[in-house]
Automatic annotation (TrEMBL):
Transmembrane segments: none
PROSITE patterns in the cross-refs: NAC, ZF_BED
Residues covered by the BED-type domain: 206-264
Alphabetized UniProt keyword annotations: DNA-binding, Metal-binding, Nucleus, Transcription, Transcription regulation, Zinc, Zinc-finger
GO biological process assignments: regulation of DNA-templated transcription
Residues in NAC domain copies: 17-164
GO molecular function terms noted in the UniProt entry: DNA binding; zinc ion binding
SMART domains from the UniProt entry: ZnF_BED
Protein's recorded name: BED-type domain-containing protein
SUPFAM superfamilies: beta-beta-alpha zinc fingers (SSF57667), NAC domain (SSF101941)
Length: 264
């Protein structure tokens, strides 16, 4: 299967990426590049006496083939309506590839430890009639330390865009492309090679349920009620507001990994 990037005609980018990073870079490298861009973004806003500013707003309405392969943008431009889980454009819609949307991204840490530095989610572009186009967007978000838990910072995001030539092979990536995506954003993948012990991803928390001994709690920086549980075994993230979502599905997910580990 072949993949290609979109190199259409586009305006001069704000905070250009250029040759600073390759499409085949690791997830941690994309988060690192985002961090560098965010430092510039924050320093320029501070010099202007403002807190937020628009970045690459002209890209949100373009066809995927017109987008640069890597770019940064204001998170509000690519936010997905909570109920619809899709972003409409004049050409079609960007839709989430999996329920829940996010996958946690690890930084460089000691063996057996969990060091989350960001999250990512994968979108696919479909025409208005629902036809798939093979265009994929992977979005990266930084994590910051909140009052009690890690918080997903949506102010500035990093996006990479490419096209899968075979539209019928959503989950059958080539070796190169699978390595690029770390094999997790396009499906529920279990890393059975090195399962961390229970509690390895635990963060200080006031949550009452014992299930939080086996997950890392995160929330949206601008919406503390939008809570997620990151699994230290597969880095998948599940919706986890105590009242809206409960904990039954977290226990089910945890036990799924226990069963998988017991069979290997």
């Amino acid at each position: 299967m072949e993949c290609q990037s979109g190199w259409g005609q586009f305006q001069l980018e704000d905070y250009p990426v250029g040759q600073e990073i390759d499409l085949l870079a690791t997830d941690a490298e994309f988060i690192g590049c985002l961090g560098a861009k965010q430092q510039r973004y924050e320093s320029e806003n501070a010099a202007l006496g403002i807190q937020t500013s628009e970045v690459n707003t002209h890209l949100a309405s373009l066809h995927p083939s017109e987008l640069p392969p890597c770019f940064v943008a204001a998170g509000t431009q690519w936010a997905l309506p909570t109920k619809l889980e899709e972003r409409q454009t004049p050409h079609g819609a960007w839709k989430q590839k999996k329920e829940g949307g996010y996958t946690a991204v690890r930084g460089v840490g000691t063996p057996g430890s969990i060091c989350y530095i960001g999250v990512k989610r994968t979108l696919e572009f479909q025409l208005h009639n629902g036809a798939k186009t093979g265009w994929i967007m992977v979005q990266y978000y930084k994590l910051v330390q909140g009052m009690d838990n890690l918080a997903i910072d949506e102010e500035l995001i990093f996006c990479k865009v490419f096209q899968l030539k075979d539209e019928d092979c959503d989950l059958q990536l080539s070796a190169i492309r699978g390595d690029q995506l770390n094999a997790t954003p396009l499906g529920e993948c279990i890393n059975e090679e090195a399962l961390p012990p229970p509690g390895a991803g635990r963060q200080p928390t006031r949550s009452r349920s014992a299930v939080w001994n086996h997950f890392t709690k995160m929330h949206k920086k601008n919406d503390p009620r939008d809570v997620y549980a990151a699994c230290p075994r597969c880095d998948g993230m599940l919706k986890a507001h105590s009242k809206d979502d409960g904990t039954t599905h977290l226990w089910r997910h945890y036990r799924m990994h226990l069963r998988a580990a017991a069979t290997h």
